[in-house]
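User: I'm putting together a teaching handout on how multi-component assemblies are represented. Below are the sequence lines for each component of a complex, exactly as they appear in our records. Could you produce the 3D structure of the whole assembly as C-alpha cells, so the students can see both representations side by side? Please keep the chain order the same as the input.
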Amino acid sequence: MALMNITSPHAHGPRKTATLMRVVVITTLPGLFALTWFFGWGNLINVVWCSIIALAAEALVLLIRKRPLAFYLKDYSALVTGVLLGLALPPLAPWWVSLVAVAFAIIIAKHLYGGMGYNPFNPAMVGFALVLISFPVAMTTSWAAPASLLENPMSFFETLGTIFGFGSQAIDAFTMATPLDIYKHEIGHSIAQDVTQNPVFGAYVAHGWEWVNLAFLAGGLFLLIKKVFTWHTPVSMLIALTIMSLAFGWDADQATPPLLHLFAGATMLGAFYIATDPVTSAVSPQGKIIYGAGIGILTYVIRAYGSYPDAIAFAVLLMNFAAPLIDTYTQPRTYGYAKAKRGAKEAE
Amino acid sequence: MSIILSAILTLLALAVIFGAILGFAAIKFKVEGNPIVDEIDSLLPQTQCGQCGFPGCRPYAEAIANGEDINKCPPGGEATIQTLADLLDVEAIPLDAEHGEEKGKQVAVIREDECIGCTKCIQACPIDAILGAAKQMHTVIADECTGCDLCVEPCPVDCIDMITVPETIKSWSWNNPTDDDIQHQAYNIIATDKNPEVSA
Amino acid sequence: MKKIWDFHGGIHPKENKDQSNQSAITDAGIPPQLIVPLQQHIGQQAELVVSVGDKVLKGQLIADAHGPVSVAVHAPSSGTITAIEEHEVPHPSGMSDLCVFIETDGKDEWCELSPCEDYSTLTPAEILGKVRSAGIAGMGGAGFPTEIKLRPPREDKVNTLILNAAECEPYITSDDRLMRERAEEVILGLEIMAYVLQPNECLIGIEDNKPEAIEALREAAKETQIDIVVIPTKYPSGGEKQLIKVLTGKEVPSGRIPADISVMCQNVATSTAVYRAVRFGEPLISRVTTLTGDCIANKGNQQVLIGTPVSWLLEKNGYLNQKGSRLVMGGPMMGFTLDQTNIPTVKTSNCILAASPKELPQPDSAMACIRCGMCSEVCPAELLPQQLYWFAKGQEFEKAEHHNLFDCIECGACSYVCPSSIPLVQYYRYAKGEVKQIKADLEKSNQARERFEFRQERIEREKEEKEAKRKARSEAAAKAQAAKKAAAEAEAKESKEGTAEPSQAPVTAKAEVSPAPEVTLESLQKKLLMAEDKLSKMEAAWKDAQENNPERAEKLAIAVESSKANVKKFTLQITELGGGASDTPAGPSLEELESNLEKTKGKLQLILNTLEDAKQNHPDRVEKLERAVAKNHTRVASAELALREASEQQSKQQASKLEPTESKG
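Assistant: Of course. Below is the structure of the complete assembly, with chains in the same order as your input.
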C-alpha cells in the first residue's frame, strides 16, 4: 500500500511549457509564409537550418552538462530560438553566419548562464547582435530583393546553393537593401516623394514587408488571446515607437514616417515574439509597460540617430540589462497593503 | 610654459581642495570602532563554545574582521559560512573539519541521579545556563542552553549528555523541495544536476 | 442585488462536486475505537480531566480549554478510556501528538446536557460561555477557537457578520449538503452570533454552483434581515480575505484580523455547531465530512464522529487502493496527503479524498521557471510568486519577506497554473519555516550573547572587588608596618627621654595610628597570660604526677618545658613590639585580678562544700572532688600571686613615674 506523500496542491492545470513554446512556433508560420512568398526560399531554408543547429547545439551542451536529453529537448525552447533567428536573419545570409549566430545564442547566451529560465539576455538577440557586429558586410548585403521585382527569382536549389556556398549565382543580382535602410539613407538628401518612388516601397508601405508584419501581428494577437503572454509589453512597445516617431519624425521629408517604422523591418516580430520572451523581460505589469516602452524608445533612437537601420536587437538587449532594476522598483501592491513597496530593502 | 604652470597649479588646487574635504570627512564622520565586527558578531550563533579557537564569539568576530577564515564555526554550520561570505564578499569555503563537525542543535542534559553538586559545570557554562549551588542539584535550563559542549568535560562524574533537540509537531516545517527528491525514490519532483535521471 | 466586488486572480479548476453531492448526509456510525487528539485547534493543547480506565458518556468533557486561546475536547461517544498516549494525528508531517483512546460500547449514551429554548434569555457572555464549553473551533479548516473569535479585541465593533458558504475547493461538498438539509440551523446559528455581536448587517456569501443550497438558505432566511449574496464560482473565493473583499470591497490589512475593519467571517458548519451548542447544549463531537474520489465506492457526505479512524471509514465505504493513488485529507488544492490510514478525523476534517492516479496524476518533474508570469496573474493575494520562488530557491529569505512572503495564503493557484510544474507552494512553506527558524535562532543567540556578556561583567566585577579588598588589606598592612616602625621609634625616643607614661604613650600612639598593632600587642599579651597560666597548671599537674603517676610525670615534664618556652617566646615578642612584659595596663587590671581571686575563692569554697557532702553521701566521687579541690587551691594561689605581682608592679611604676619627674625636676 504505497500512498504518496506530496505537498498540495494536488490538482494541476493543463498548461505546460512545451505547449507554450509549440504554440509560439506555430504562430510564426503565417509570417514565415509571407516571407517566403515575398522574398523567396531563403527564410524557409534558414529556419530549417537554424532549427537543426539549435537542437544540435542544445543536445551537445546537455551532454556536456550530463542532463537527460529527451527531458530538456522536449520543452521546445531551443526550437523557438532557432526559428526566431531563422526569421530575423537576412534570407540569403551564408550558412556560417546562421551557424555562428545560433550556436552562440544557445551555448553561450543560454546555457552558460544556466539554461532555460536563467539567462538574463534574450539568446536570439544575442546571437543576432553578435553576427551583426562581427559580419557587417554579410549581414547588410544578404537581404533579398522582393521576388516580384526580379525577372528571374531564384529557385529553391539556387537559394540553397547561395546560402551554403556552392551556388553559382552572383548574389548581388538578388539582394537589395531593406526599405528602412533605403529610407534612412536617402531621406537626408531627397524628399519623401522621391524616395518612395523606389519600387521597394510598393503600393502601401513597403512591398512585402507590410504583409510580413501583418502576419506576425496576427500571430501575436492570437497568442494574446490564448493568454500566452500579457498585453503590456507589445502594446507599450508599439505605442512608444509610434509616439516617438510622431514626435521626432512627423515630417516625412526629414525622417522615416511612423507607418514605415511599424510595418517595415522586424518591428512586429520584435514586439510579439522577442520582447515578450518571458525569461528576460520584467515581471510585474507596471514593469512590463516600462520595459516595453523602453524598447520602443530605444528602437526609434537607434534607428533614427544610430547607424543601424533595424535596431530591435540592440533595443531589446539594452532593456534586458534594465529588467531586474525595473522589477525592484515596480513591485505591485499586495492585498492588504495601502501602497506598493518600492526598492530593495524594507524601510526599517 | 605658462600652460604647464597653470595646469600644475590647477591640479595642485584640486588636490588641496579634495584633500581638505577628505580630511574633514575623516574627522567629522569618523565611526568609532569597527562596525563590521558588530555585524559579524550578530551573524554568529553565540554559543560561546570556543570550538573556533577563540574565547567566545565576539573575539572570533574581531578576528574575522582582521582577515581570519570564516569557516571555523561548527555550531553555525554551512548557513553561517554562507551569510558571512555574503556580508564580507568573500568566497564561502566549506567548514574546517579541524574545528569540529556540524551537528544538529543540541542541548546538554544532566543525569540528576548522578550529580554530586560540585558546581564545576556551572563555572564552565559561558552563558550561565546551569542552575544550582554547591552540594545542591544542578540542572540545565534547556531554553537557554546553546549546546556549546563546554560543561561536559569539567564534570567529575561524567553525568552530562549532549542530546539532539528532537523535532516536535510544533517545530516541524516543510523541506526544501530541491532536496526532497533524495527522500522520495518513487518519483522526482525536481530534475537537478545532482539528480539528472528523471522519471518520464 | 447587493453589490459585489472581485478579487485579483483566481482559477477555475474542474469542480468534481457531482460525485458526492447527489445524496443526503448519512450517519457514518460508531467505530469500535475512537482516537481523539487533544489538539484539534490553534492555540494551546487542551488539558486532560480524565484518566485511563474512566467510563465516559457521549459529550462528556475529557479535556478542558487550557489558557486563553484553547478549545475543550469532549468524548464523541460513550465508552471506556483505554489509553492516553501519542498517536499520529492529521498533520502534513505525519507526526504524533497526545490522543485519548476510547473503546466505544455502542450504546452512544449522552451525558447530561443543558439546553436552552430561547437564546435571547441568555446574556452574550453566557452564550460565549456555552460556545467555549462546547469546544467549538472554526470548522472551515483553520480551527481557530470560535469563542475567542466571537470576542473581538479592544471592543472593535463588528459591523458586518459574514458566513462563509463559498466552499470553493473542488470535490468538497460537505457545506453544500449541510445547507441543503439543515438551512434553518445555519440561519439560527447566525442569528445567535448576531445577537452576541450586534452587527449592522449579516451576509452569507455562497458560490453560484450551489443553486439548491441558495434556495434552501433563502427559504430559511425569509423572515430575517440576512442577505444571501451569490458570488461567481472562482477558486479561492472561500478564502476569508478574498470573500471579505468580494462582499464588502474592503481589504484586511496585512498582519491584521478582519475584526480590525469591523468584519467577521465564520463558516456555516461552525454556525450550525454554535446553534446546537446553545439550543441543545451539545458539544462539538461530530461533523459532516465528504468522502469522495475514485478509490471509494460509496461516495457522499457522512456525519462522522470526531476521532473516527480514517481506516475504518475507508473500509466501511469500499476503499480500493490502486497503485499510485493518493489519500488526501482536505481538498485537492489545500489538503495534505496521508501516508497511513490509521489517523483520526478531527474538527477540521471536511473531506477525505481517495483519488486514483487518473484523477490526481503524479506530478511532472519540475522544469526551470520560464518567468511566464502566469502565477502572478492568478495569485489572489496579488503577490509575485515567481520572485518568491527565485528568492526561496536562492535562500534569500530577506528579499522574500520584503516581497510579502507572509501574505501568501497557500491556496495553490500558482502551482496549479505553473507550466513548468514547479511545486511553488512547497517553496513558500519552506521559506516561511526557514524565516521563522532564523528569527527564533536570532532571538536565542541574542539572549545567549546578553547572558554571556552579563556573565563576563559579573566575573570582572568580582575580580575587581577581590582586587580592591586585597589592595585595601595590603595597604592597611603596610600602614600598620609603618605605624609600628614609627611607634617603635617614638618609644625608643620616649624611653630615652623618659617621658611620663612610656607604656601609655606608645599604646596611645598605636591606638591613634591604627587598631592593628594594638591588637597584635594585646593579643600577644593575652597569649602570654594564657601561656603563664598554662605553665602554672602544668607545673602543678607535674608535681601531682610526680607523686601519684610517675608515667605521666615525664610527659608532663615535657609539657612544662614547652609551656615555659611559650612564655619566653611571647615575652620576647612583646618586648620586640615595644611593650614591656611589665605592661600591665594592657593586661588585666588590678580590679580584674581581684575579682578573679574572689571568683576562684568562691569556687574553692563550693567544691569544699561538695566534697563534704560527697564524703557523706557519694564516697566514689570523693577522690575526684579532692583532686578538684587541689586544683582550685592552685588556682586560688596563682590568682593571689598574680594580684600580688600586679600590685607590686603598679607600685613600682608609680615609683618609676615619680623618679623621672624627680630626675627631671
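A couple of points students might notice: The interface with chain A takes residues 174, 177, 184, 186-187, 189, 191, 193, 196-198, 200 of chain B (CB under 8 Å). Confidence is low (pLDDT under 50) at residues 182-189 of chain B.
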